[in-house]
């Protein structure tokens, strides 16, 4: 490492320590990497370490407890030990000797030199023991989630499904993209991406492609030309469920950063009216920039709190309520969500129901509303829709059987479990408003 250059492990420990008080890993890492001046390869290493240690934190702590009993650890030293153990367990490309030697240097760099001996002793002892893996039967420790999450899933899906679901979150998640049908076709985009060195494959869903190898996608000429946007398969099924048609009036109540609005606009063939709302004005430029890049001309982005009436907005043919949620379906991509406390998300079902009921007021008779989340929490999913259907008898659930291969459909509503669909954990309910004669 050149003199004065940042150390990727040091940056990783600093980010991990900063996030322990509740900061978001992705934001803290982005900010630290920008300041760090690290070259691309070291940035990738640092990123892998931060995400990996975060995803395994609960299990690493359980294992470290056996080596550090009775020792008082400061947060930076605790994170140094987690990082050391993680490298020895999960980073095949880092030789054991390098993992230990580089990690043992960190206490001095963190101005906690007195902990050097402890870090050295713990890591060498773990190596001498033959790098044992966690041998307990507690799913929440083995797969590193808060106990209430494992318990909730065992109750909802059974223990074996929960094990498979949690194991899936430890693997790599593929990248899916959405063909911009306003500008190209799937076969043409596949050829174009191949010229740019990427392998894209069709999926069961038309115009959804799976990328086998990815790099920095926004750097591709085809991206700059607006031929696609990145969007998970589950989100694309959600947009398909809405069934927007050219000429429709469509509201997207919780639209930022805009991925689903863009796909819906493509189903609309650029014709009709698409209002993309979000409560945060600072998020609107992301929607507007994306729409501009993709050549979408029938989308208007505006600031609106979806729990309040939509004044001056026409009744809609289709409404998408992709509500704020606990995100438990995307633990593989956002590892810090594994440690959400139940209390932090207890108010979400109430907010989600208020957003859904307000949207319902804005739907024309005979219109269709899709309620979706990227969480696997029955309270936020079937619980909210169940209450809605009881309170709003002019709505019925449209059966989503057959929408997405591998999805579990109960009472017409689809739950997408990642180990069954190969995509994000997701929930989709399609609700139709009766026409005056059948209300
Ligand atoms: C799950 S995200 C939406 C993702 C988006 N549909 C997409 O596909 O790109 C939920 C969004 O709801 C917004 N939001 C939260 N509370 C809201 C409210 N009361 N009214 C409108 N939007 C809200 C958040 O700012 C966030 O952007």
TrEMBL record:
Q: What is the name of the protein in this document?
A: 16S rRNA (cytosine(967)-C(5))-methyltransferase
Listed under GO biological process in this entry are: regulation of DNA-templated transcription
Q: Name the predominant localization.
A: cytoplasm
A GO molecular function assigned to this protein is:
RNA binding
NCBIfam families, per the entry: PRK14902.1, rsmB
Source species of the chain: Neobittarella massiliensis
Where is the protein found, in the record's own terms? Answer: Cytoplasm
**GO CC list:** cytoplasm
Please report the stretch or stretches of sequence annotated as the SAM-dependent MTase RsmB/NOP-type domain. Answer: 165-434
Pfam families named in the record: Methyltr_RsmB-F (PF01189), NusB (PF01029), RsmF-B_ferredox (PF22458)
EC number(s) recorded for this UniProt protein: 2.1.1.176
Q: Which reaction does it catalyse?
A: cytidine(967) in 16S rRNA + S-adenosyl-L-methionine = 5-methylcytidine(967) in 16S rRNA + S-adenosyl-L-homocysteine + H(+)
